[in-house]
Amino acid sequence: MAYQFSQDSEIRFQRLIPQFPSKRSLILPCLFLLQADKGFVDQEGMQYIADRIGDPISLAHVHGVATFYTMYNKKPVGKFHIQICGNISCYLSGSDSITEHVCSKLGIDPGETTGDKKYTVDEVQCLGACGFGPVAQINDKYYENLTPEKIEAIISELEKQV
Amino acid sequence: MGLKTLLTTHVSAADSHTLSHYRSVGGYESQKKALTEMTAEQIVNDVKNSGLRGRGGAGFPTGNKWGFIPKTDKPKYLICNGDEGEPGTFKDRLLIEKFPHMLIEGMVIAAKAIDSHQGYIYIRGEFHKGIRIVEAAVEEAYKAGLLGKNILGLGYDFDLVVYSGAGAYICGEESALINSLEGRRGHPRLKPPFPAVSGLYACPTVVNNVETFCNVPHIIRMTGEEYKKIGTEKSPGTRLFAVSGHVKKPGIYEVEMGTPMKELIYDICGGIKNDGTLKAVIPGGSSSPILTAEEAMTATMDYESIASLKSMLGSGAVIILSESADLVETTYRLAEFYSHESCGQCTPCREGTHWVKDLLHKIKIGEGTEKDVELIFSLSRNMEGGTTICPLADACVMAVRPTMTKFKGEFSARLKKEVSISH
């Protein structure tokens, strides 16, 4: 069956419409709805968004926006998306050792997903939590002041949720 | 000078983000005052009198910015820029999570000042928690009649929408943010026209930082004249400094403008980590030129003092580097950031930031030559001073060149392979 917004996303979409005087402004929030439904943004979903927003928004417009922003996953990611900040403040606090530890434990390199699709690890630019580094974002949640031991414990907790 | 709370007085209250707490400490009284006792012109004048300068990075006088909005029949838009993402900067997240009602109150007052009836709070997408908190606060404010149609029965309408960014540092630049809100790629726009004339949906628009809006209720409560007595003459008020790096107590500290940097680092933040010695300070976010330890010890935390050292107070992000810091590595990481975040519109930025990053990588891994250093300096001259639509390329240059100049020895040692190389 062709993709359409989930019930929750449809309710959110209807709430979004009156918030902007231009339909075009719906593109970014709609891409988040698509990602919430599917876990990533794909061609079918982007075409659906273009159709729902309607003329003059085309697939090209939606695709152009989706590819500009880093928070839209252009390919499937693991159940837990571990994003580790590697910029200056986190680096000064030892973020490299966190990335190495996580990657070695999961047996993947940054940018990769484990074979069982449980984890994706990415090194990202600043997460805006510089005083509490090293910082990782796992799905929607920030984990701060990390140490190799702490991240090890966090991954053990995630294992229980799988 | 020193620690002084104005915005963060109630930061330790667990429910500081709720309407009931905010009202219990006098919240929304300034909004009432502005809507009942003041004209738009009086609000603008009070903010002008306060001397408040934008807390996002550029430090432009807020009242003047509001005063540029033309009196037209077109809708006027008010936008809060909560897209903080410059390495080192993390102060707005505190205000967003702890004081969302202070932000809303400031925005309603600003709305009346510029005759706006629609506002947007643009928050960086990664701040999921902050977005949820602000959305809940907006809902609370609507239910209490503090937002929406006929606010407090006083005949003023103002609607507010929370909008999530999607991961692009450049959207912190106001015209890129406007493009993003319009559902476009976050490409900065050519100026003029400035947003005050043609901003969101080609209408007059004011974009202010989170901390800037949070100052507004306090200015209205205490009057601009009284507010101006805090801080220094040209940099009035307090400032939230986000301190990170090699200090014992990193964090967010609200201090009076003009506080000596030495006091911030050694008294307030407990000094250098592991009792090390200070090597350098990046005083206002990653794009502010680095200061040597000697320069830092003479600086005070206000716009003028930092500018006199040829750097910027910027976003108030203070990154401390001890003698253990590898400045070749940190400079490379900053160049990597700017190359990653270049929107790609302008050739000097799109090509330059990547080129600089690649050359620094070469130096970092011990394969650099003096020619590579010269090339970085040559490239940087073509990346700055108005060769691009927005200042991202300039920011990259400011993050790289002063460090390579002031700490030349560290880079030379890497060229001569006098230090251990990490790949």
Automatic annotation (TrEMBL), chain A:
<comment type="similarity">
    <text>Belongs to the complex I 24 kDa subunit family.</text>
</comment>
<dbReference type="Pfam" id="PF01257">
    <property type="entry name" value="2Fe-2S_thioredx"/>
</dbReference>
<dbReference type="InterPro" id="IPR042128">
    <property type="entry name" value="NuoE_dom"/>
</dbReference>
<keyword id="KW-0408">Iron</keyword>
<dbReference type="InterPro" id="IPR041921">
    <property type="entry name" value="NuoE_N"/>
</dbReference>
<keyword id="KW-0001">2Fe-2S</keyword>
<dbReference type="InterPro" id="IPR002023">
    <property type="entry name" value="NuoE-like"/>
</dbReference>
<keyword id="KW-0411">Iron-sulfur</keyword>
<dbReference type="InterPro" id="IPR036249">
    <property type="entry name" value="Thioredoxin-like_sf"/>
</dbReference>
<keyword id="KW-0479">Metal-binding</keyword>
<protein>
    <submittedName>
        <fullName>NAD(P)H-dependent oxidoreductase subunit E</fullName>
    </submittedName>
</protein>
Automatic annotation (TrEMBL), chain B:
<keyword id="KW-0560">Oxidoreductase</keyword>
<keyword id="KW-0411">Iron-sulfur</keyword>
<dbReference type="InterPro" id="IPR037225">
    <property type="entry name" value="Nuo51_FMN-bd_sf"/>
</dbReference>
<dbReference type="Pfam" id="PF22461">
    <property type="entry name" value="SLBB_2"/>
</dbReference>
<dbReference type="InterPro" id="IPR001949">
    <property type="entry name" value="NADH-UbQ_OxRdtase_51kDa_CS"/>
</dbReference>
<dbReference type="InterPro" id="IPR011538">
    <property type="entry name" value="Nuo51_FMN-bd"/>
</dbReference>
<keyword id="KW-0004">4Fe-4S</keyword>
<keyword id="KW-0285">Flavoprotein</keyword>
<keyword id="KW-0408">Iron</keyword>
<dbReference type="InterPro" id="IPR019575">
    <property type="entry name" value="Nuop51_4Fe4S-bd"/>
</dbReference>
<protein>
    <recommendedName>
        <fullName>NADH-quinone oxidoreductase subunit F</fullName>
        <ecNumber>7.1.1.-</ecNumber>
    </recommendedName>
</protein>
<keyword id="KW-0479">Metal-binding</keyword>
<comment type="function">
    <text>NDH-1 shuttles electrons from NADH, via FMN and iron-sulfur (Fe-S) centers, to quinones in the respiratory chain.</text>
</comment>
<keyword id="KW-1278">Translocase</keyword>
<dbReference type="GO" id="GO:0016491">
    <property type="term" value="F:oxidoreductase activity"/>
</dbReference>
<keyword id="KW-0520">NAD</keyword>
<dbReference type="Pfam" id="PF01512">
    <property type="entry name" value="Complex1_51K"/>
</dbReference>
<keyword id="KW-0874">Quinone</keyword>
<keyword id="KW-0288">FMN</keyword>
<feature type="domain" description="NADH-ubiquinone oxidoreductase 51kDa subunit iron-sulphur binding">
    <location>
        <begin position="328"/>
        <end position="373"/>
    </location>
</feature>
<dbReference type="InterPro" id="IPR011537">
    <property type="entry name" value="NADH-UbQ_OxRdtase_suF"/>
</dbReference>
<dbReference type="InterPro" id="IPR054765">
    <property type="entry name" value="SLBB_dom"/>
</dbReference>
